[in-house]
């Protein structure tokens, strides 16, 4: 369409980004070509580095290029003894911004969804079980999304904790039902944390 | 913010794209990491190829990875004898989609704007003068944007053509004053082309 195969390939490639359609993709391609080739090359390199080198933290499963993420490699966070279970790495970022939580995380990278083939192993609950057995866990805070799947996943994990006699709580009021955790403002999340109840 | 330097670099790099703020950039980064690393690597490669290899057509100045663009290397387009002058490569795409024009283009890559240091040489009018002198030009169609700068640029080019006794026309009704050519629908552009008048 642009009469340049390289530009056409770039426009098609931009459409893999969320919320980017044909017209936005074309604007992005020409904007970089016309005004910011250095920025385009930096983005190319950053994409390559991230796609090739980002893996999962061995302890909490969040994205990291190291064996352990920045939180799991901080002894004071481990010693705290609380584990907050979330569905995605973006949820970790959102909770960290509230400055309310001093423990570590466990990132499910999804939720239980048998219809999509997401069982306990797919969301890392074998690794989580090891942490419950080996670490000195004081409390597990269930911060999965307040959706049907998130609630079911929280319930399943609370049963695992109960077998180990570990206290579990669920983040509570302030989180609108049906909402997605990563879009909630820090203030609301702070309330949800301080108002958590036994599960 | 994400506790991974590589992810933070990727989020910052995405913000060089038009219309992409901090939150969109974060969504783009995690969307690729979670669901489409292959797409991310393809985008990285496409960006690299385009930023490094796209240059300007020697004859019309539009973006191309070849010496001549696909239109300028088509003998029947050259033989047509009409040259359509536009401000940007996106304008070429928009006009081609109307299927109304069978000649070649001249892409200014901007417009006259002395305050920004954009004089006749910066918009390639030395190259354009050569085409007027050397090629068998039948008509120059001025399709710069209907803005103050676009009109002034069209006026300047029409004076150049007058000196060579070459007919100049300006695309006309249908293009809303103050609008940007690349956002206009094909039907309106078709009307603007067929209704062009002497300049
Ligand atoms: Zn970790
Ligand atoms: Zn050309």
Automatic annotation (TrEMBL), chains A, B:
It comes from the Bacteria. This is Recombination protein RecR. Belongs to the RecR family. A zinc finger (C4-type) spans 57-72. It comes from Glaciecola petra. Gene3D superfamilies: 3.40.1360.10, 6.10.250.240, RecR Domain 1. Keywords: DNA damage, DNA recombination, DNA repair, Metal-binding, Zinc, Zinc-finger. SMART domains: TOPRIM. The keyword Metal-binding applies. It holds the Pfam family RecR_HhH. Residues 81-176 form the Toprim domain. May play a role in DNA repair. It seems to be involved in an RecBC-independent recombinational process of DNA repair. It may act with RecF and RecO.
């Amino acid at each position: 369409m642009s009469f340049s195969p390289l530009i056409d390939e770039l426009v098609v490639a931009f459409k893999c980004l969320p919320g980017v359609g044909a017209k936005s993709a074309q604007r992005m391609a020409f904007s970089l070509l016309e005004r910011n080739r250095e920025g385009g090359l930096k983005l190319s390199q950053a994409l390559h580095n991230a796609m090739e080198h980002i893996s999962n933290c061995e302890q909490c499963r969040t994205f990291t290029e190291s064996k352990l993420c920045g939180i799991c490699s901080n002894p004071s966070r481990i010693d705290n003894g609380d584990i907050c279970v979330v569905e995605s790495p973006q949820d970790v970022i959102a909770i960290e911004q509230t400055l309310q939580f001093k423990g570590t995380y466990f990132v499910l990278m999804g939720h239980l969804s048998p219809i999509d083939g997401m069982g306990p192993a797919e969301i890392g609950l074998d690794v989580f079980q090891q942490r419950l057995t080996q670490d000195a866990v004081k409390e597990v805070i269930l911060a999965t999304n307040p959706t049907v799947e998130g609630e079911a996943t929280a319930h399943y994990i609370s049963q695992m904790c109960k077998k180990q006699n570990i206290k579990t709580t669920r983040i509570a009021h302030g989180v609108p039902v049906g909402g997605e955790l990563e879009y909630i403002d820090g203030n609301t999340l702070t309330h949800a944390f301080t108002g958590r109840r036994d599960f």
